[in-house]
Design goal:
This protein is of the alpha+beta class. The chain contains 7 helices and 19 strands. It folds into 2 domains: 73 residues, no CATH class; 212 residues, Fumarylacetoacetate hydrolase, domain 2.
Length: 291
């Protein structure tokens, strides 16, 4: 099943994606508060709409109770209160290009919910840092409360997977040993375009991941290169802090970031960045200069 977050007059909503049609489910925060019952409702909605005949173009015909995907302003498919935990140096080849040893424990940093934005949105270059860099990542969205659990229970609590671009202001990030400013510039965590449940995605640790800038491939990796997998990371985190439904774990980026190139390459006004993950889709973001 594929879920879509979108903006509405009364706030952020979520729906089930069926072909090119979105079947509304309700407010996105309410959906996550009511898990797992709301997920069962979504599955029921998906099953009913699977019976709709495709039109002659191969697309699903809209009804008065559905929305066309192209008409929507997409939002991150997570609650407005999501905590975003990210992993640094979680791909072996990325650690190698950075000239660093493989970590013995996951390197974890946090993003604020205000950095999240949807597919197709514009992301401003921070006015105090021209070194904005891309980091295409597979993100995990949690569907249950996790406190001091093992990897098996953590894996069972994964609601779904999405793309995330961990856009990083390298000047601020590398100015000190603390990454908070570099990783929390305004709107620098585009996520989407959809949330794919585990039963539809298949093996999340054998997915091709590609990041393109203006159509040029900058990152081309596979999630099999991860050092720590999501269930182990979630179990590790849950020994310190309780994870809640809707929290996000972004699992790190493969090799090919701009800062580690010779010479370094950074994003400029007008650049189009696309993160595409096999089985999920493409997450486009337009980079703009603040005016």
């Amino acid at each position: 099943m594929r879920l879509v977050g979108y903006e509405a007059r009364d706030g952020r909503r979520i729906g089930v994606l069926h072909g090119n049609i979105v079947v509304p489910l309700g407010q996105i925060d309410d959906f996550f508060t009511a898990l797992p019952e709301s997920l069962e409702e979504a599955r029921s909605v998906r099953a009913r709409n699977a019976a709709i005949d495709d039109d002659e173009t191969g697309n699903v015909a809209p009804t008065r109770h559905t929305l066309e995907l192209e008409s929507l302003t997409l939002a991150p498919p997570v609650p407005t209160t999501s905590r975003v935990l990210c992993i640094g140096l979680n791909y072996a080849r990325h650690a190698a290009e950075s000239g660093k040893e493989l970590p013995s424990k996951p390197t974890i940093f946090a993003r604020f919910p205000s950095t999240l934005t949807g597919a197709g949105s514009e992301v401003p270059i921070p006015p105090g840092d021209e070194r904005l860099d891309w980091e295409g990542e597979l993100a995990v969205v949690i569907g249950a409360t996790l406190k001091n659990v093992g990897p098996q229970e953590a894996n069972a609590a994964i609601l779904g997977y999405t793309c995330l671009n961990d856009l990083s202001a390298r000047g601020y990030q590398h100015a000190t040993t603390q990454w908070t400013l570099g990783k929390n510039a305004d709107r620098t965590a585009p996520a989407g375009p959809v949330l794919v449940t585990p039963d539809e995605l298949g093996d999340p640790y054998n997915l091709n991941l590609e990041t393109r800038v203006n159509g040029i491939t900058m990152q081309s990796g596979n999630t099999s290169d991860m050092i720590f997998r999501a269930p182990d990371i979630l179990a590790y985190i849950s020994g310190s802090m309780t994870l809640l439904p809707g929290d996000v774990l972004s699992t790190g980026t493969p090799e090919g970031v701009g800062a580690d190139r010779t010479p370094p390459i950074y994003l400029s006004d007008g650049d189009l960045v696309e993160v595409e993950i096999e089985g999920i889709g493409a997450l486009p973001t337009r980079i703009v200069r603040q005016r």
